[in-house]
Specification:
heterodimer; A: 114 residues; mainly beta; seven-stranded mixed sheet; four-stranded antiparallel sheet; 11 strands; B: 108 residues; five-stranded mixed sheet
């Protein structure tokens, strides 16, 4: 298996633009997690899905952020409109639902909003 | 969710054994203790998990006392490539809460 795949790996955009981050979890995993990492706040859980259903989105900063998981092999995290304070590394991770302590992380998307 | 406390940073010379201790006084009966490692510019990587006593794998050992209020990650004979941030997490099949971790710097 190729592991968790994220795209793009790097994104530079201007304030106000829409940003879409993509994630393909490991085949067979039925839990998917989106995290954001910054120097100031560390690694924060934004939202997670079990069997494609959003379970907890309390970590999503505000309404500008949205996440979807239309099927078991694809998820998106969208920011609209983007702001400079959204600059961070965004990680996607997947796991089996019965073993959420063992998560496999993707390489991350480094987002810079100018 | 149980809160964990671990040192912010540690330094070690190559070849030494490194022990990173994490306290989790409010751990629940069904909680497991899990450690992750994060290299610069990479996502965190699962390295070891335990419930009680001792667990060992090819990467590290995890020591958990009987009261489970703390745990110690032991890295034998570290090398420069072990320089990373190490996270201690406690959960019972619930989403992980990552703290700031322990930044380990291995010096030649």
């Amino acid at each position: 298996d190729a592991g968790v795949i994220q795209s793009p790996r790097h994104e530079v955009t201007e304030m106000g633009q829409e940003v879409t981050l993509r994630c393909k979890p490991i085949s067979g995993h039925n839990s998917l997690f989106w995290y954001r990492q910054t120097m100031m706040r560390g690694l924060e859980l934004l939202i997670y899905f079990n069997n494609n259903v959003p379970i907890d989105d309390s970590g999503m900063p505000e309404d500008r952020f949205s996440a979807k998981m239309p099927n078991a092999s694809f998820s998106t995290l969208k920011i609209q409109p983007s702001e400079p304070r959204d600059s961070a590394v965004y990680f996607c991770a997947s796991s089996f639902h019965r073993d959420q302590e063992t998560q496999y992380f993707g390489p991350g998307t480094r987002l810079l909003v100018l | 969710l149980a809160k964990t406390t671990q040192p912010i940073s540690m330094d070690s010379y190559e070849g030494q054994e490194v022990n990173i201790t994490c306290s989790h006084n409010n751990i629940a009966t069904n909680d497991y203790i899990t450690w992750y490692q994060q290299f610069p510019s990479q996502g965190p990587r699962f390295i070891i998990q335990g419930y009680k006593t001792k667990v060992t794998n090819e990467v590290a050992s995890l020591f958990i006392p009987a009261d489970r209020k703390s745990s110690t990650l032991s890295l034998p004979r570290v090398s420069l490539s072990d320089t990373a941030v190490y996270y201690c997490l406690v959960s019972g099949n619930t989403p992980l809460v990552f703290g700031k971790g322990t930044r380990l710097s291995v010096i030649a």
